[in-house]
Each structure stands twice: as C-alpha cells, then as structure tokens.
Amino acid sequence: MSGRNVERVEGRYSALAPGYTEVDEDRWVPEHGKSVYRSSFERDRARLLHSSSLRRLGAKTQVVSPDVDDFSRTRLTHSLEVAQVGRELGRLLGCDPDVVDAACLSHDLGHPPFGHNGEKVLNELAAEIGGFEGNAQTLRILTRLETKRFHPDGRSAGLNLTRASLDAAVKYPWRVHQAPLRPDGTRSPKFGAYEDDLEVFTWLRQGVTGTRQCMEAQVMDAADDIAYSVHDVEDGIVSGRFQLKFLDDDIQRARVIQTTQEWYLPETSEDRIDAAIERLAGVEAWTRESDGSRRALAALKNMTSELIGRFCGAIYTATRQAHGSQPLVRHEADLVVPTETLEEICLMKGIAANYIMASREQMPVYVRQRDVLTDLHGLLVETGDRFLDPQFQADYRAADDDAGRHRAIIDQIASLTDGAALEWYATLVHGKPVMNRLFA
After folding, report:
1. Are 43 and 99 in contact (CB under 8 A)?
2. Which of 314, 345, 362 marks a domain boundary?
3. CA-to-CA distance for 308 and 144, rounded, in angstroms?
4. How many of the other CB atoms lie within 10 Å of CB of 64?
5. Helices assigned H by DSSP within 28-74
C-alpha cells in the first residue's frame, strides 16, 4: 500500500491516500468493518470490474458497431483505455488512482444501444419523464440498477460505492435545469442526475457548493477526451474510412476544420484550428497513410501513444505550474488544460466526426437504429411489464405512477446491448428469427 496513510481501525486497516478523509470513504449504506488488505477505493474499483453493466459495454457501439470488425473499439475496450490514461495522469497529480480508475470504468455505463444515436432517441421517447441522458443513467446504474447492497427499507443502493468514487463518476454534476448556458443562450443537454435520483446525488455532493467537478472527475473527463480523440481516429483509419493524408487536400482540410468548429470549438477561429493541424502533422509519429500491414499498424499504435503522451504531458505540466507539487484531490484544485492542447484534442475528435459520425453513408444506419428503438419502446409501453427482465419488471410493478413505470421501460431498453436490441426488435416486434446484423 505504498503512498498511503495506513491506520489501524477496530482491528483492521484503513488505507487512505494523502488528502482524503473518512468522509470521502463514506458509503450511502454504511458497511461495517474494513478490508484487511484493500482500501475502500480499491474495493470500489473491484465492484465495477465485476459488474454486469461493465461487461455489457463489450457489445455496445463506440464509433463503429461491434459487429463490423474485430479491431474497432467497443464501449468496454474504450472504458479500459480511458481508465489506463486516467489512472496514470491522476496518480501523477496526487489523486487516488483507484478513485480515478473507478470513475473511468463507470463513465460510459449509462450509454444505451447504438451509442449517441440511441441516446438521442431515448431522450425523445422519455421527454415527458425528464428525458434520458447517458451520464445521469450512469449514476442511476451505480446507485440503483446494478445492485450489491440494499437500504434497511429494502430499496436498492446499487454498488454502494464511496462518496469520493461516486462524485468522481459524475461527469456533469448538475440537474437538468442547472445545465450551463451555451453560446447561443440555450442550456446544454448534458446533466448528471434525474430528479428521482436526487437523494443520492445530494448525498454524494455533500459539502460541495455549486456545480464544479471534483479533481478526479476532471481527470476522468480529460482522459475520456484524450482516449477517444486518438483512438477513434485510429479505428477510422484501420476500418478504411479515411487516411490522414486527406488533410493535405484543401477541400478535405476545410471540411475537417468546419466540422471541428461546429461540433467542438464554436468560439475558435478557423485559423487556430488549421494551426492545430500543422502542429500535429509535425509530430514525428504522425502517420499520413496506412496500408494495413503489421508495420503500418505498429506505426499507428506508435502515433496513438505519442499523442496521448503529448496531451497528458501538457496537462500535467500546466496543472503543476498552477498548483505546485502537493497532492491535488477532490475539490481542492482544478485541472489545467492548455488552449493549444484543447484545440489539438478537439481537432482529433473533429477528424473522426467528419469521416465517421457525420458521414452520409452512416445515415441509413442511424435511421434504422432509430426505428428499432422507437418500435421496441412502443411495444413495451403497450404490453406493460410482460416482456421486461425480472429486475425491471419488479421496478415497473413497484412504481407509484405512470412516470415511474415508463422509466422502468426506458431503463430496460437502455440496458440492452446492440445485439440484444436487434434481437428483441426482431422477435417481439416482428416475430422473426434473431438478426445478427442491422442489415441482415
């Protein structure tokens, strides 16, 4: 337990990294006794690693659908990579690495089938009950749907993680009406808790004023951006959707700049985004063209490593310059992301968005995904609890009103993997044999 303060408590050991307190170790439902060989935060990480919700991410879309090839990342492999990046960056800054690791592992648990497209569909279908948001769904999974402990009155307490780990997992620590305003005056659609999860949200935010992220959540957020900005580009290149040499063409370059600006950097000039392209293209490992050979794949892997190191190094240096060498934990400091680094990360995201997410060839897929979820939702609303899994059937029957029953149906659909959603759609809606692929 190197680097921890170890104290003997009631015959057992309590191991806390510097800067953390017993309040940070508190659990929503108290658990008596402490592990003789693991800290509370290590136990949090273990609970997540063994959760069924994490396993399901292996069959949920990241950028490319899980059934397209054997190389592209799923939500699960993405989450594992985010955890590796976040754990190392957090450790260097003095965060407990297991708190950051737990936050990174859990950050995508709430994503429904078909990635962000599925999230948009469920948000529309759940509009009358407070909408659907993947991050709010994550909190719901951690504190209600993925159960390890119960309250004395019989209510689920979810995995019953510590306050520090739950706070770190909340990427958007505000309710829907508290979401920050965007440049156009509208509120961000992102939020971290549904109204019927307000009790646990209030508990985990105890002692925190306002809507700031804790340091561990900021590290998780940065690790998420870094990992998917780099890896989505790698997946896009390997799947044959584009090459980085396309940016040498003036028209292609302009499109990437426009997508980056519209999707991620609306307040940044085109010249600054173009300068970010020049900086990254000057990195020695930048791979303009890949032919799929082992040597080419190794070059791509080297590029991803170089870029992750570049981004993390810049953030670490800037944060240390601002806050000194002391451990930076919880709500005592803020992560510092240099402007140029942010622009480079957003450019990488913009490249993937331009050639994959915004690609016209994806539109028929998105339409069919929407149909699958909409029709499945309609059938489940019509048939009540008849086809729900036992745990969601119990939630449906225990609900006090139509809103609660509708939320149980939304929870059920959100829990499905891409393949399970297609199977339910084929068998329940159309009464046909299982479809293995969207275009089967």
Report:
1. no
2. 362
3. 34
4. 21
5. 40-49, 52-56
Domain boundary (204, 227, 245) is at 204
Asked if residue 30 belongs to a domain, the reply is no
| Encoded amino acid at 384, one letter | G
What DSSP designation does 425 have? I
> Could you tell me which residues come within 8 angstroms of residue 257 by beta carbon, excluding any fewer than 6 positions away?
270, 273, 274, 277, 350
Same domain, 358 and 373: no
Does a structural domain hold residue 300?
A: yes
Count: domains in the chain: 3
Distances (CA, A) of 113 to 65, 119, 230, 423, 425: 10, 8, 23, 12, 12
One-letter identity of residue 395: D
Q: What is the pLDDT along the chain (440 residues), one digit of tens a residue?
A: 344 544 444 434 456 778 899 999 999 999 987 677 889 999 999 999 999 999 999 887 655 554 444 546 788 999 999 999 999 999 999 999 999 999 999 999 999 999 889 999 999 999 999 999 999 999 999 999 999 999 999 999 999 999 999 999 999 999 999 988 887 788 889 999 999 999 999 999 999 989 999 999 999 999 999 999 999 999 999 989 999 999 999 999 999 999 999 999 999 999 999 999 999 999 999 999 999 999 999 999 999 999 999 999 999 999 999 999 999 999 999 999 999 999 999 999 999 999 987 765 567 888 999 999 999 999 999 999 999 999 999 999 999 999 999 999 999 999 999 999 999 999 999 886 544 444 43
Q: Is 284 exposed, middle or buried, given 0-12, 13-18 or 19+ CB atoms closer than 10 A?
A: exposed
**Domain that residue 327 falls in:** 215-362
311 in a domain, yes or no?
yes
Tokens of residue 135, six digits: 């991050």
**Which CATH number covers residue 167?**
1.10.3210.10
Q: What is the pTM of this model?
A: 0.90
Q: Give which of 315, 109, 322, 347 is closest to 223, Cα–Cα.
A: 315
At 33, list the tokens.
Answer: 């006794």
Is residue 87 located within the same domain as residue 108? yes
The reply to whether 282 and 270 lie within a common domain is yes
CA 99 to chain centre: 15
Contact 267, 117 (CB under 8 A): no
Claim to verify: residue 85 and residue 195 sit in the same structural domain: yes
Q: Is 9 part of a structural domain of the chain? A: no
